[in-house]
Design goal:
The chain is of the alpha+beta class and 498 residues long. The protein has helices at 6-16, 37-49, 56-59, 80-97, 103-124, 128-142, 239-242, 282-293, 300-319, 325-350, 364-389, 392-395, 399-403, 408-415, 423-436, 439-447, 452-463, 465-477, 488-497, and strands spanning 20-22, 25-26, 60-62, 69-71, 146-149, 172-177, 180-190, 198-201, 216-221, 227-231, 259-269, 273-276, 353-354, 360-361. The protein is built from 19 helices and 14 strands. The protein has a six-stranded mixed β-sheet with strand order 2-1-10-11-7-6. Strands 5-8-9-12 form a four-stranded mixed β-sheet. Bound molecules: iron/sulfur cluster (SF4).
């Protein structure tokens, strides 16, 4: 059966019986857990629409391997039309679910593997591509959901994989056997992994020849021995369990149900290994995958932003990126935006004027400009904070995960960056940034003290556009210059007149 039904997909997850943890607790069945079910329901839509005759052309394709009708999520792009259809499929699914439907990561990983196995074979005389085609045929026939796994924990960000104090901060081969390899490490922010059938492991960065053990790509069943999933916490995640009108998107997930996937010495047989030490191809593979997958109040807010900038700067120390010039420049940009709004507030105050009652009023134009800038700069400062703190903000584990002895060591190990800092400190900082850049905080900056348009109306009224026109006319056509100066513009005019 090349096209699974939604019910078959859900049943197949129950049969997998993977090892998964939510809020520190082992889950009996991912398909029957309230926190994961919305994400599964989202993916179920991808299966459902493939059976709808109206969407057949967009949701399905003809396999170039078997000629059978297959789900487009298991298809290798073979034309511009395929790429267009992929985008059309994503649009349709976005319109149907209003969230992330997760399967695109696996699709792009399949295509990246298809391409890179061919290139490795061409360059090295290996036989990965044929092996991968066999694997792909099985995936297409079973209509599997695949999770692409690329992002390594990365440890100290200023160090390469081979320089890390803990060599497991990037997934690596720890043992090579005649019949396969044993891999160890973790992949973070793994979209849809917790409700996938298989994980496609890819290198997370370009590698040097000395880093051959990190050049590994393979397909790992989600229920393989040694594989476990630790589900991340999301903002307002408890609301989903409360029911009623507070939920948001009631039936589907919030983003992609990201999890940490741990590979605790997992054996992968040769037929599932598609890169094993060919380090010079790692960067190209990362590039292939990424390219397919990328096709987004002066005083009080100034003080708040000071703390946010401080938390972000400390986060860069925790990550080990504080000396990177790009990181420093982004901190400068945060400071610049914050001081710009603060300076405007000081200016509005300094330019204040006395009211008939004797009290002083700030300069209305400058005051409204402050607030208008806040509706932008607070978002931009938050954006840069997210940029510097990383995807960890969206997928970091909850407190309970540190208390369960079955997973605490993985949570500690794979969230540690600069070993000078505790993993829990990283989470504390992350939660602060999460709170200070959440919807509530941002919307307050947007609409508190009046919505943006209210300021713009005052600014236009205060600006006295007619006066500015007069200024322009005087500068361009005026003749109130000191007599006797050899001004070029005047000479020209005199010549024209003469
Ligand atoms: Fe697909 Fe990625 Fe968009 Fe999720 S975020 S729907 S996986 S492209």
């Amino acid at each position: 059966m090349a096209l699974k039904t939604p019910a078959e997909y859900v049943d197949s997850l129950r049969e997998l019986n993977i090892r998964a943890y939510v809020n520190g607790e082992r889950v009996d069945s991912v398909a029957d857990h309230q926190s994961i079910a919305p994400h599964i329901n989202t993916v179920a839509k991808t299966y459902e629409l493939a059976h709808d005759p109206e969407h057949r052309d967009v949701m399905t394709a003809e396999s170039h391997l078997t000629g059978e009708r297959i789900h487009r999520y298991t298809h290798i792009f073979h034309s511009a039309d395929d790429l267009v259809k992929k985008i059309q499929m994503l649009r349709l699914l976005g319109q149907t679910t209003g969230t992330c439907f997760q399967r695109c990561v696996g699709l792009d990983a399949l295509n990246a593997l298809y391409a890179i196995t061919y290139e490795i074979d061409q360059g090295e005389g290996t036989t990965y591509h044929e092996r991968f085609r066999d694997y792909l045929t099985g995936v297409q026939r079973a209509d599997l959901m695949l999770a692409g796994a690329m992002t390594d924990p990365k440890g100290h960000r200023a160090k390469r994989p081979s320089q890390q104090e803990d060599p497991d901060q990037f997934v690596r081969v720890v043992e090579r056997r005649e019949d396969g390899v044993v891999i160890r490490g973790a992949k973070l922010h793994n979209t849809g992994g917790i409700n996938s059938h298989e994980i496609l492991v890819m290198p997370g960065t370009g590698l040097s020849e000395e880093e051959a053990d990190y050049a590994v790509s393979c397909a790992v069943p989600a229920n393989a021995d040694g594989v476990l999933f630790i589900f991340g916490r999301q903002s307002n995640d408890n609301r989903k369990l409360e029911g009623g009108c507070d939920i948001g998107n009631p039936r589907f997930g919030v983003v992609g149900g990201e999890a940490m996937v741990v590979f605790d010495d997992v054996f992968v047989p040769n037929e599932r290994v598609f890169m094993n030490g060919e380090a010079k191809y790692a960067g190209t593979m990362v590039n292939y995958f990424a390219t397919w997958h990328r096709a987004n109040y002066g005083g009080c807010k100034g003080g708040n932003a000071d703390v946010l900038i401080g938390a972000t700067a400390k986060m860069t120390k925790v990550l080990g990126t504080e000396r990177n010039s790009v990181v420093r420049d982004k901190l400068i940009e945060m400071i610049h935006m914050n001081e710009t709004t603060y300076a405007s507030a000081i200016g509005a105050s300094a330019m204040g004027y006395e009211l008939p009652c004797g009290a002083y009023m700030v300069d209305p134009m400058m005051a409204n400009t402050v607030k208008q800038n806040i509706t932008r700069n607070v978002y931009q400062i938050g954006r840069l904070s997210h940029d510097l703190a990383g995807g960890f903000l969206a997928t970091m584990p909850g407190e309970q995960s540190f208390d369960n002895p079955e997973i605490a060591r993985f949570v500690e190990k794979y969230h540690q960056a600069n070993p000078e800092y505790e993993t829990r400190d990283r989470v504390k900082l992350g939660r602060y940034i999460e709170n200070m850049t959440s919807v509530t905080t941002m919307v307050e900056a947007m609409h508190g003290a009046g919505s943006p348009q209210a300021q713009r109306i005052v600014m236009l009224g205060q600006a006295d556009i007619d006066k500015k026109i007069e200024m322009a006319e005087q500068v361009i056509d005026g003749d109130d210059d000191v007599e006797g100066l050899p001004l070029p513009g005047k000479r020209q005019a005199a010549e024209v007149e003469g």
